Each structure stands twice: as C-alpha cells, then as structure tokens.
C-alpha cells in the first residue's frame, strides 16, 4: 500500500497485534480511553470490515460489544464484507493493582484546645480492567489502529448503557471516515464525535 505521510512513528511495527497506545483525553467516571494509529498507513484504501475469524473469544459481553461496534462502523462509512479491507479484533485483560488512600485526622485537647494533625493511610487491592479494540489491515497483516478503555470496572458485568458508552468512546477516537485520509473534525481539540 502507498503511504500518505512522511511522518514516521518509531513505535509502530508491521507485526500483527503489537500494541501501540498513546493516551488521549477522553475520560469518564469509570474508564479512561486511549488510542493511537499508524501514521504510515493509507486509510483511504479502507472501505470494508469484518471481525477476526475464529478468534475464540467467548468472554461474557463479547458478542454484545461486537454488535455495538458493527453498528458504529457504518456511521464512519464502512460496510461489512466477507473479504474486508480491515479486521476488527477484541481483547481484554484484568490486572491486580494496589491503591493508597490518605485521610487527614486531628485532635483536640490541652490549654488551647488543638493539639495535633496527622493522617491515616490505607492500602487496598483492586482489579483494573482493559478492553482493547484492534483494527488490522488484512492485506498487510498489520495493526493500523488501536483503542482501549481502562479502569476499575467489571468487564463481565457492564450494563448495556455502560458498554454502549464504552464502545462509543473507544470508536470515537478512530480518526478517519472510510475511504479517506482526511481527519475527522475534533470536538474541543480532544476527541471525535460519533457521526449522526
């Protein structure tokens, strides 16, 4: 495929499913959205999509997420095809993290009433979930875009509304309409809105 820009991104390699994440600005109360894309890829060559065949993903919610992405892609001008230009892959992982909270404490007593200031520190363990959407150039077998949602949420028990918001926020980072290298218009210089 032809390249469309002289800008080189040294983090991107032509190996399928090598992650490249550059944290962007879209946040919510439950997850943070991140994304990046291959600046050397010619996105004007992409007009159709389908999901990675035989991916073996059976995690709860996977089919619903696939359905939401399938509904989103036509808003960008993409059509479903049995011989697509792009494959979409879904991945998820859970990592155990440790958090720290600090609560100020103070006491009264003595001649003037006030006698001290201190803080109470507590550590706790929580699970950080990440849901990743990979978009792969079928002919070149390389990753050209990746978006992810990361946060302290239960990926297996997301409500339908939360999952829809997650998909909209992740796919809202995809920078191009189908068949073009013209960037989509940014909202607030931060993220892309879902086309109506």
List the helices and strands and how they pair.
Elements: E1 32-37, E2 48-51, H1 62-72, E3 79-80, E4 86-108, E5 114-137, E6 142-151, H2 160-171, E7 186-187, E8 191-192
Parallel strand pairs: 2-3, 2-4
Antiparallel strand pairs: 1-6, 4-5, 5-6, 7-8
Helix pairs in contact: 1-2
Overall description:
This protein has 196 residues and is mainly β. It has a domain at 32-94 and 127-192: Double Stranded RNA Binding Domain, CATH 3.30.160. The chain has helices at residues 62-72, 160-171, and strands at residues 32-37, 48-51, 79-80, 86-108, 114-137, 142-151, 186-187, 191-192. The strands form two sheets. Strands 1-6-5-4-2-3 form a six-stranded mixed beta sheet. Strands 7-8 form a two-stranded antiparallel sheet. Strand 2 (48-51), helix 1 (62-72) and strand 3 (79-80) form a beta-alpha-beta unit. Helix 1 packs across helix 2. The longest helix has 12 residues, at 160-171. It is globular.
Instruction: Find the structural class using helix and strand composition.
Output: mainly beta
Multimeric state: single chain
* Quantity of strands, as a count: 8
Given the C-alpha coordinates, what overall shape results? globular
CATH topology-level name of the domain at 32-94 and 127-192: Double Stranded RNA Binding Domain
Strand order, main sheet: write it out.
Answer: 1-6-5-4-2-3
The level-1 CATH class of the domain at 32-94 and 127-192? Alpha Beta
Strand portion:
35-45%
Uncertain regions: pLDDT < 50 for 5+ in a row?
Answer: 1-29
- CATH architectural category of the domain at 32-94 and 127-192: 2-Layer Sandwich
From the N-terminal CA to the C-terminal CA, the straight-line distance is: 30 Å
Q: What's the helical proportion of residues?
A: 10-25%
The biggest sheet, with number of strands, parallel, antiparallel or mixed sense and barrel status, is: 6 strands, mixed
The string of secondary-structure elements, in order, is EEHEEEEHEE
Mean pLDDT, all residues: 74
Round the Cα radius of gyration to an integer and report it: 22 Å
* SS summary, helix count: 2
């Amino acid at each position: 495929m032809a390249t469309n820009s002289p800008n080189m991104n040294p983090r991107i390699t032509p190996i399928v499913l090598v992650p490249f994440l550059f944290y962007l600005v879209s946040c919510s109360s439950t997850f943070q959205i991140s994304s990046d894309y291959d600046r050397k890829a010619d996105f004007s060559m992409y007009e159709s999509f389908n999901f990675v065949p035989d991916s073996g993903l059976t995690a709860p919610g996977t089919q619903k997420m696939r359905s939401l992405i399938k509904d989103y892609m036509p808003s960008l001008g993409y059509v479903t095809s049995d011989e697509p230009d792009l494959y979409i892959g879904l991945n998820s992982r859970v990592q155990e993290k440790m958090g720290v909270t600090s609560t100020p404490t103070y006491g009264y007593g003595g001649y003037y009433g006030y006698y001290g200031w201190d803080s109470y520190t507590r550590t706790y363990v929580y699970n950080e979930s990440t849901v990743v959407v990979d978009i792969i150039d079928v002919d070149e077998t390389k990753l050209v875009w990746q978006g992810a949602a990361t946060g302290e949420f239960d990926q297996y028990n997301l409500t339908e509304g939360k999952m829809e918001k997650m998909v909209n926020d992740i796919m809202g980072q995809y920078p191009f309409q189908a068949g073009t290298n013209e960037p989509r218009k940014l909202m607030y210089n931060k993220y892309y809105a879902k086309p109506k």
